[in-house]
Design a protein that fits this description.
alpha/beta; Rossmann fold; single chain; 179 residues; five-stranded parallel β-sheet; 5 strands
């Protein structure tokens, strides 16, 4: 089974994807991790990386092709990616979202070493800026809106639930799909 988990920043998509892959014994791929690795290699932060992607599509194309290859050549994986549903069309497509306040608090609490935020307002501004840059670019390049709920089989609002509860919801949905 191919599973893509998409959604807004800090909505829990990566955490659930890792947990789900482990429980199912599937491979896990994270396009966000790949982007952060590439940003680090280019000595920029993730927001600057997104701006670079917006200026030159060669950066996007590297990540896009990775997803396409995974989708065509593999099975039994979970991929967390904003564009997963676009590039792995035969996957079960799951979307996570949460209130911006909740997401910003999560990001502030679980700082990644390459992201430096001073306060909650800064986190919100950076998250919304990155989401807008990405969304605008993907609409332009692919006519694909990762925030359009019609692109998904299951939508989960993770504002008030734990990662484990979210993963249980996904697992329950997947079991129903197999029937």
């Amino acid at each position: 089974m191919k599973i893509t988990i998409s959604g807004t920043a800090a909505s829990g998509k990566s955490s659930v994807a890792k947990l789900l892959a482990k429980k199912l014994g599937y491979k896990h791929y994270s396009m966000g991790d790949l982007q952060r690795e590439l940003a680090k290699e280019h000595n920029v932060d993730i927001v600057t990386w997104g701006e670079m992607e917006a200026e030159d599509d060669k950066y996007d194309r590297m990540i896009d092709q990775k997803q396409i290859d995974i989708g065509k050549n593999e099975d039994n994986f979970v991929i967390d990616s904003w564009l997963g549903p676009k590039f792995v069309p035969d996957a079960v497509k799951i979307c996570f979202d949460a209130d911006i306040e909740v997401r910003a608090k999560r990001r502030l609490l679980h700082k990644r070493k390459e992201e430096k935020y001073e306060n909650l307002d800064t986190v919100k501004q950076e998250m919304l800026k990155r989401e807008k840059i990405n969304r605008d670019r993907w609409l332009k390049y692919y006519k694909f809106d990762y925030k359009d709920k019609n692109n998904f089989d299951l939508i989960i609002d993770s504002s008030d639930i734990s990662i484990e509860e979210a993963e249980d919801m996904v697992e329950s949905f997947l079991q129903k799909q197999k029937l």
